[in-house]
Amino acid sequence: MKTRILIFGIILSLFAACSDDYLERLPNDTLVDNPEFWNDEGNVGNRMFAFYTHFFPGYESGWTRSNFWTLADAPETSWTDDAAQKAATYFINNAPSTASSAGWSFSYVRQINLIIDRLDNADMLEESKNHWLGVARFFRAMEYHRLVKRFGDVPWFEQVVDDTEKDLLYRQRDARTTVMDNVLADLEFAMEHVRVSDGMPGLKVNQDVVKAFTSQIMLFEGTWQKYHGQNNAAATKYLSAARTAALELIESGRYSIAPDYLSLTTSETLDGNPEIILYRAYEPGEVTHSVMGFQLQDGQRNAPSKDLIDSYLSSNGLPIEQAENDLFESDKTFSLEMANRDPRLYANIDSSRKYLDGVDVLFASSGYYSHRFINYNLTEYSGQLSITDAPVMRYGEVLLNYIEASAELHDLGEYSLNQNDFDISFNELRKRESVDMPLVTFDGNNLSVNGMVINDPNRDADVSSLLWEIRRERRVEMVWEGKRYDDLRRWKKLEYADMTLNTKLNMGAWLDKEAFVLWFNENVADADTQIDLSDLDGVNLDREGTAGYIIPTDDPSAVRAYDERDYLYPLPTDEIALYKENGVTLEQNPGW
Fold it and tell me: What is the DSSP code string of 430-482?
C-alpha cells in the first residue's frame, strides 16, 4: 500500500467551516484554545496537515480539475501558448461581485496568524517551537504569494485582527514590495528553522521544501519587479534570494535528476524518486484524481498548439528553423515533423500518428495528441479514479529556477554568469538518461551546442538569445505542469497567448486528407472502420483544398485576446462597497 498523506476527519472538520470572507474567524472551540493542545507537537503537526490540500493540491481529487493538463476555464490553466483553441475570458468585461468568485480571501491568513499566536505562547522546546513557527510562516508566505500574484497590492496582516477593529480591517492596501519583503522575511525564518527532516520524505514540509518554494516564489517576484515594476533594486533582492535558495538545494546533494522524464507524471508511486522534493500520493478507494481521465476521455478539444510543438529543438540542440539545422526537413508530413527531435516531445506527444475528430474516439483538435499523464498500464483507473502520484515540487524545477535567476541577475549586472552555472543546472536536465540532449556551452551572452551558436530566427526581439533559450528549456521541461501561465505573466508576455497575435495557437499539424485516408485504411482500420474523405469534413484547414494546417476552431467566440489589465485580477465589487461603507476607498485594479 502506498504511503500517503492522512488528513484525519477531526482536522478537516475544524477547517471546513472557514468561509471565503476574510472576516471569518477560526472556530474558537476547546480544542483550539486549550493551551495544552498547542504544547503537543502531534496536535500541531496534525493541524498543519489541514493546509496541505490548499497549498499542495497536486492533481486535486475526484473530478475537480487541477492546473496540470486539464485546462479548466480559469486563466491559470487555459491562458497559455501551449494549447490551441481554448478561450480564457477571465471575468469577461466585468469584475466579479463576491470575494469567493474573485479569490479575494484572507481566511487562510487569519488561520495561520492564529496558529502563530498560539505557538508563540506554547510550552514547547525552542527547537520544536521554531520548527512549527517556521512551517506556519512558510504557509503564510505561500498564501500571500497567491494573493499578490492575483491582485498586486494587498493588506498585510501579521497578527490576528478582531472583526471589531475596523480601522485595521478596512484600510488601504499595502504596497506590493512591502508585502513581498514580509514574505521574504517569513521564508528566511522558515529556511533557518524548519527541520531538514521530519519524517515521511516527500510528503511533509521540511527545509528542502521551503527552499524549493522560495526559489519559485522569489523568481516570480524578482522577474515581475524587473519587467512590470522596473524596480531593479527589488528585482535584484528577490532574484538573489531565489538563486541562493536553489543553490543551497543543489549543493546539498540530496536530489538528482530521475532517469525517466515521462515517469515523473505517470508513476503509480513517486516514493523514493530521486528528483521528487514534494508529491501528493493517491491510492484506490482513498484519494483519486481525474487528470489521466481527462486526457483519455472524449478526445482533446483543447490540444497542444503548433506553437508548442515548434518550440521543441531538434536532437542536435538547434531550433528547427535555424538555417544551420540540417536535421529538420519539413513539417508537411507528421513523420518528418516528429523525426529527430528533443525526446521530451515524444514524452508529451504521441508521435505515431495524428489523431483526428471524425476518425478516432480519442482525438486531438490540433492533431497532436498529448499523453504526458497517461499510464497505459493503469487505464482501469481512468475517469476520476486515477491513482498516479502528482509531482508537486521536483528538483528539475529548482534547477530551472536557479539558472533563470542567475541569468536575470547577469542581465541586471548584479552577477557574472559562468559555465559552471549551466553545468550544475541546465546541463543536468540535458543529461537525463531519457533525454540525452547536447550540452550547452556559455560563451559571452550566447549559448552554443557542439561549437554552433544557438540562434532562433523566431526569437522575440525583446528577449536576449540567452534568456530565450533558458525560457524554452523551462517550457519544454515543465509543459502542462501548471507553470506556463505564471511564467508569461511575470515576463510580461501574455501576448504570446493571444490568438489574434500568435497564429500558431489556432494551428495544428499539417494534414493531407487524401493521403491520410489511404494511410489510415491500410494501417489502422479494419473492414468495419474504413473511412473516406467525408469523415474528415469537420477538420478545418487553413487553406483551400484537401491539404493544409489543421485549424482547431473556426468559432470566433473561442478566440482569446489579452488586455493589459489581465496581468492582475479585478477586486470584487462587493468588497469595494464594504470598504466604502467603512469609510475607505478600495481602488479597483487598472482597467477593470
Answer: HT-TTT-PPPPEEETTEEEETTEE---TT--TTS-HHHHHHHHHHHHHSTTSS
